[in-house]
Amino acid sequence: AQKITQTQPGMFVQEKEAVTLDCTYDTSDPSYGLFWYKQPSSGEMIFLIYQGSYDQQNATEGRYSLNFQKARKSANLVISASQLGDSAMYFCAMREDLFTGTASKLTFGTGTRLQVTL
Amino acid sequence: DVKVTQSSRYLVKRTGEKVFLECVQDMDHENMFWYRQDPGLGLRLIYFSYDVKMKEKGDIPEGYSVSREKKERFSLILESASTNQTSMYLCASSSLTGSGANVLTFGAGSRLTVL
């Protein structure tokens, strides 16, 4: 079974609009973390935002927020006021076994390509 | 500016060749990782290392090996390259902490084509 599922291969959004990128996950571990990364055409992965399974509040970082719904096992990324520079591939990822694992390896989804239009 | 540096951005090799992909980080990170990225499949973990000379298999280790002789350097080795190893290879590193928000820092990637 897929641990991270991103069902939207591609999305379009108009500049200045908000957009939600979907991510669902599957784990039986009570302690886990969810990450979103952005990959522009240059290829480098850029960390955007993190949510821990025990965090009470939804994470926010500037124009990025994470809509964390634990019971539904979803961790959607919301980008407010889209900009042309937001056009990129976006990956959702999960780390299990947060506090006892020896290495912080991540499992990634297949990604969503976001295109911001004028 | 701290970074993860992958020595080759683009490589073209022939089937059967031995291929080395080098990765160096300057952040004194304990953990290092090799992922491959393919369209529609996302990133898949090949190998990782949490200490010098230590290595563990990821999800798709077949056809690959790794070497970590120094803390800052993690090499991915394709003993006999095959066409199905044509891909983008991403190296990453992270520190060894108990914090959940242990962010991976990635290199720019190495695009390997095997003919």
Short synopsis of the structure:
By secondary structure, chain A is an all-beta fold. In chain A, 0% of the residues lie in helices and 49% in strands.
Detail the topology: elements first, then pairings:
The complex is a heterodimer of chains A (118) and B (115).
Chain A: E1 4-5, E2 10-14, E3 19-21, E4 24-25, E5 32-39, E6 46-52, E7 60-61, E8 64-69, E9 74-79, E10 88-96, E11 107-108, E12 112-117
Parallel strand pairs in A: 2-12
Antiparallel strand pairs in A: 1-4, 3-9, 5-6, 5-10, 7-8, 8-9, 10-11, 10-12
Chain B: E1 4-6, E2 10-13, E3 19-25, E4 31-38, E5 42-49, E6 56-57, E7 65-70, E8 73-78, E9 87-94, E10 105-106, E11 110-114
Describe the structure.
The complex is a heterodimer of chains A (118) and B (115). With 118 residues, chain A is mainly beta. Chain A has strands spanning 4-5, 10-14, 19-21, 24-25, 32-39, 46-52, 60-61, 64-69, 74-79, 88-96, 107-108, 112-117. Chain A is globular and about 45 Å long. Chain B is mostly beta strands and 115 residues long. Chain B is 0% helix and 51% strand. Chain B has strands spanning 4-6, 10-13, 19-25, 31-38, 42-49, 56-57, 65-70, 73-78, 87-94, 105-106, 110-114. In chain B, β4 (31-38) and β5 (42-49) form a beta hairpin. The chains are: A mainly beta (118), B mainly beta (115).
Give the assembly state of these chains. Answer: heterodimer
Counting H and I runs of at least 4 residues, what is the number of helices of chain A? 0
Major protein interface = A-B, 31 and 31 residues
Summarize the biggest pleated sheet of chain A.
6 strands, mixed
The number of strands of chain A is: 12
N to C succession of SSEs of chain A: EEEEEEEEEEEE
Radius of gyration of chain A: 14 Å
Strand composition percent of chain B: over 45%
Helical content band of chain A: under 10%
Q: Count of DSSP E strands of chain B?
A: 11
What is the 3D shape of chain B?
Answer: globular
Number of helices of chain B: 0
